[in-house]
Amino acid sequence: MKLLLPTYLLIHLLFFLTPLAYTQTKSYSGVLINSANNQPVEGATFFIGTNKTAIGTSKADGSYRFNMDYAANNVDPVAKLKIHHISYRDTVLVLKQGYQQIYLQPKANMLEEVVIQQKNINDIDIRNLVGSVYEVDIKKLSERSELDMGKLLEGQVPGLTVKFSGELGSKPEIRIRGNASFAYAQNANQPLFVMDGMIISAENFLTLNPQDFASIKVLKDAPATALYGIKAANGVIELTSKKGFHGSPDITLSLNQGITFRGERTVEMMGTTEKLAFEESIQAISTPGYRYSPSYIRRQYTNPEELERQLARGAYYLDSLQQYNTDWFRELVKPNTFQSYNLGIRGGTEKNSYFYSANYSKQGGRMPGNAINQFTARANLDYILTDRLSISLNNSFGLSTTRSQNGENNDPSTLVYALNPYETRESGKLTSYDGRSFSNLIDQFHKRSTSKRFSSSLIAHWDVLRGLNISGIIGIDYGLEEIYERIYADAFSQRNEPNNAKGFLKEGDRKNFGLTNNIRANYQRQFGDHDLYAGFNVDYYYNSWKSLEAEGKGISDDMESLSGVNASLLHGNQPKIAGNKVADKQLGFGAAMGYTFQNRYAFYASIKRDGSSMLPQEKRWNNAWSTGLGWTPSAYAFFKEQHIVTNLAFKHSIGYTASMAGINRRDIQTSFLQDNNFYGANRVLELIALPNKQLIPQQTYTANSSMDLGLFNRINLSVNRYTHITKQAIIQVPIASSNGFKSYAQNIGELQNSGIEIALSGDIIRKKSWRWNSSIAISHNKNRVNKLYGGDKLYLNARSVIPDYEVGQPLGIIYGLQSHGIHPLTGIPQYVNQQGATIDYNRPVEAHYFNNLGLSIAPYSGYFNHYIVYKNWSFTMNINFGFGGIAAYSKSYVRDAKSANYNALKGQLQQMWFEIGDENKIYPIKDLPTNINDLYQSYANNKTIYKTDFIKLNHLQLSYAINSFTGMLKYLKNPKIRLQADNLYTLRFEQDRGSLNDVLQPVLTFSLTTSF
Amino acid sequence: MNISYLIPLLLLVSACNLEVKPENEISGDAIINTIPKAESLLSQAYVSLQFSPEDYSVLTEDFQPTYLISYQIDLQQYHAWNEAVIERRTAQIWEANYNALVHLNTLLNSEPYLNSAQDKWSTLKGQALVLKAYIYFDLLQLFSKRYDPQEAGIILKESNILATNPRLTQAESLKAIENFLSEAVALLKDNNDTQIYYMQLPAAYLLQGQVALFQKKYAEAEQRIAPLLAKNKSLPQHKDEIRMLWNNSLTAQSPHVLWAYDYRTHPNNYLYYTNRNEGDYFQVNNLFSFEEQDLRATISLFKMEMKTLSGQTGVRPLFGKYRSTLQDQLERMPVMMRLTEAHFILLESLIEQNKLPEAVATLNRFFTSVGLTTIPSQQSQQSLRLRLRHEKQKEFIGEKINFLDLKRWNKSISRYLPDSNTLSVTIQASDYRWTWPIPTSERRYNTLVSQNPGWLF
């Protein structure tokens, strides 16, 4: 708290400084540019604040120049100017002295409205002059038929990657500029999500309604993120919600109806003929293909008469199976529907404005019973209390339900690959699932997770004096996730349970509560050619998670409440309860200053000091600082004389952040877990980890250089190059097990993450009724282990012979064996080591068996977008791609003797070794000895990897704006109809033999948007 | 409205303490400051042991595999003493034992923070020391060679700070174990805690006997268990008494059980095939036949009709401790130490000291207790020795001590093919696998330790 005092003093100091720089007459010049096509805007008028005096107009080349005498005009120097043009939205802002580029947003089909420029509290103009901030095209995003924010952002931002796994509704992995921590699969690399200046949880972010937002910014480098301090080491995604405006209410309604399709078939499975032949060849006694085959029957019966009878019976049975050829993919994976209804109302008076919205959406999953229902609502209210003081109140609410209604193992998609083609929904007894019928497999397990979120923030903005403003936010973000899992008494899994223990119910609540409190004082003044900025802030974040879960058995089918479980059961069937409570606090003090000279040079520096309750007292306070330089040659006068290079700017920044990523209290302090386990009659107290008292936070150093180049006012090229170095990176390092634990947290090394992001966009055609805008972006990310303290290789598992981290190597290398095919005499796979010698299976696995096969994290990604407008028609196309990664084939659909009762990969019959002399086979003998099987199953080899390169046709949209209606429909303003297709097609260079989970469902939607 | 009111308000909210007490864990260096917390650590040490009967019994001669074993490859290979499987399983035992030790060390090192209830603390400390001795003695018997004072012994860990220690010699290890035990005996002398799931004073005496026996100090062994036998001389005499041994629950105290482990599942779970009604993966070895009048004949095993490899059914002797039918799924506490073992320690000490008449009398006392006829007093030392070994193995079928005895006695053992008395392989007494391998998780990060001979891992 000691730091609060200096902050106060500095704020007071600024009050005194203010009068020193008070001059009355200023000159202003600059250019007005159409933000959509970078064309100059002619004929826009500048008005002063409330008395609506016109003081100037822009010329044909968009330029403006005027002098302004505040005293003469009797105007407050901090009053805002309004720029008005018939075809553009009115813009209100405080003009800067000297030369300034102002972007105007074309009205297109929008209503006349005044946009009050109120921004996120940490969104400081100067930050953008030196830092790397990418603004997502929210308009395009909000028109997509997709409910998941993660999916919407995928492939939209250079350097931002989103990786999905699991069913509809599961949480994706979002990364900005790759991984900064060793533990690359965990939350340690997740960015920070900020909505209207308030920190929100990743879960809440994913269920937001994109139509509620005016902008989404992705902050990638130190100057951009430094104000968020130690929480922001992995980048920030900043959302700003829409606001009301001064004018009559604008009601927007959009209706979307669509169909979701099955999506691609990731793997082809056998048909009946091949499967029965395969069963006979593999000689699995549990399968009809072998049990009814002549070869098996002949071995069983010696009596010729009986043999004859059995042969005929077998042939008849096999014939009857041949009648069926069920395609379980088509049978189980179904098209579904997509619906989304959105209503928005915006409006207000001069003093207050409002924005309300409500959205209901429903997306059906491809498996029966799997669906997301989502309802969101928002109310944003702004009040201009005085000329200098305004407050906003933002409230948002969301309800999202994900259902699945699955097999016992909770993943019905496995059935697609397991059920045999000769089995049907009516089959009484299945071969694939012994002793069960099809109805015993589906509808066994019901799961519903409901997430309810509520967030509310109060933001105040006070223009204290000329150039000095203070703004503050108090916001809460509350999320409640309700879990419900149910097995009814008649489910297959319950058949052996005693009658009083049949039926299962689990319910749980997981709550998270976040409080954001941030106060910022900004001082911005111009002194001639010098533009100065200084700012201070104090922020405080509180976060708590609480969970409560209970489950019990023996509940009747009529009951859906925990009160119905049988509490008298014993011996493993007793009801169970579990709970968890975690909280952390962070207090920070920040200062930032910036300086620009004639808009040509910019300098920015910030420092933040944060204390976190997660760390013990002596290590509590950590720093984050950043500094950056910007140089804009195109701001020189001589540059304006030519029309080739219309924009040129360079930026460079460096920064440092101590990161809380990967740190837990248990890793530093002796901590015991006290759960509800007992030994005998005594409670147990478990030591959670071996503490490392020397542990310190990771330190991330970043450097970013960028160039923006504009040609002919038409083409824009932006190049970003960055390096992130994480020093003292933390990971759970293995230790000798006689310490009682196998690993403990340690600052182990240095990780470097560097990359380049190139984006090129521009108008290919620009005619009066014809426009074709195209953009392409490609980014490359490369990470490398720079140092490992005390060695050059790190093995996370005592058994591994291949290092998990190695100095000079990137993360995520797939090491594998060199296959030498299947031995034609034994049917056993042969592998050769690095020297070309055959591997001896009787010896333990050694490091020289393995080769670097490639990277699992694709280094290249990017997008290719087109936007074509012709008269009333417009067409949008979004393609994204990823290159350079590999993955190992899943061997799960290659069957052996033990799993032959399940359906197998198409072609396995031909490619499997069955008898001596089978040459050039891919799959080994049906039962491999365990030691060979371990090697075969656990490691990839050069023949079982494939490239994950893909080009995905993400989004296609055709829309038509209807000029006018007559009759009843004449009240509709600017109606638009749209036909769009999402996740349409993915071109993979090699077929993935993985699960259905990573395939996105294609959605075809028809929508109508209109205003009233 | 004047916003200047708001700003101090906002700052007030910020003005807070950054100490957040975690609510779902207990954190801090001096936090073990009450007896209940310290006792919870002792309980956790027992939980950490993760004792499981199958780790030992499957390796002994107690069981023969049935045809069902082919559905449980891992168990089959463990039974066949497959190196890779032994290495994997025994690594878990090592890790579990050392995890238990961390808790015991934390408990013992908390003494300065516990300033109340001196007598309660001495009981607790004594109990912790017995467990510590038990763990070290276990590690010594399992991961070191048969008794040889100069050979490598245990890795001693006395604190919970990261360290890599070398192995002591067996002589040093045994010295340490004996010291823990004698200190524990002194502390537990007046202890009136009778919780059956902790090792108490009787268990400490039995351990002392085992430690002496391990070093072939037979006179000492006899003397060590004397207080135990003096207190309760009688063996279980009636069928009900014998059955009670295996039917124990937390509330049922038996004078014959010194320590039972709170297992939280059925102790014979590892024998059950997925479809319980079809039988077990193992049957009781045909070596062990019980005469009809033997009180244990229907308790140590039970007969059941099971299918065989040829498809026909046959009657098999299935392991009967803790259950009398295959449907029995109740949780029970596996017996870890019982008084009968003290009798056998006495018997072995007498035989090895060549006090043969006393030995015959002791053996006959056992025979009488289980309803068998006694043997004549004229017996050679060797024949008595062989009889003792057979009878002890038979009495302790399915219990951990059998594996340790086989190793100590330097016995070769046989492995059979499923559903048959045909020998598949003999594990020689000299086989390197009797001494379990130092796990990779230790050796890889502790350069002071080398692998036991024979192991490639």
TrEMBL record, chain A:
It is a multi-pass membrane protein. Pfam families: Plug (PF07715). GO terms for cellular component: cell outer membrane. InterPro entries: Beta-barrel_TonB_sf, Plug_dom, Plug_dom_sf, TonB-dep_OMP_SusC/RagA, TonB-dep_rcpt-like. The keyword Hydrolase does not apply. Residues 126-236 form the TonB-dependent receptor plug domain. Keywords: Cell outer membrane, Membrane, Transmembrane, Transmembrane beta strand, Transport. It is found in: Cell outer membrane. Its main location: membrane. It comes from the Bacteria. Belongs to the TonB-dependent receptor family. This is SusC/RagA family TonB-linked outer membrane protein. It comes from Rhinopithecimicrobium faecis.
UniProtKB/TrEMBL annotation, chain B:
It comes from the Bacteria. Coiled coil: none annotated. Residues 18-198 form the SusD-like N-terminal domain. One of its GO terms (cellular component) is cell outer membrane. InterPro entries: SusD-like_N, SusD_RagB_dom, TPR-like_helical_dom_sf. Residues 329-455 form the RagB/SusD domain. It is found in: Cell outer membrane. Keywords: Cell outer membrane, Membrane, Signal. Belongs to the SusD family. This is RagB/SusD family nutrient uptake outer membrane protein. It comes from Rhinopithecimicrobium faecis.
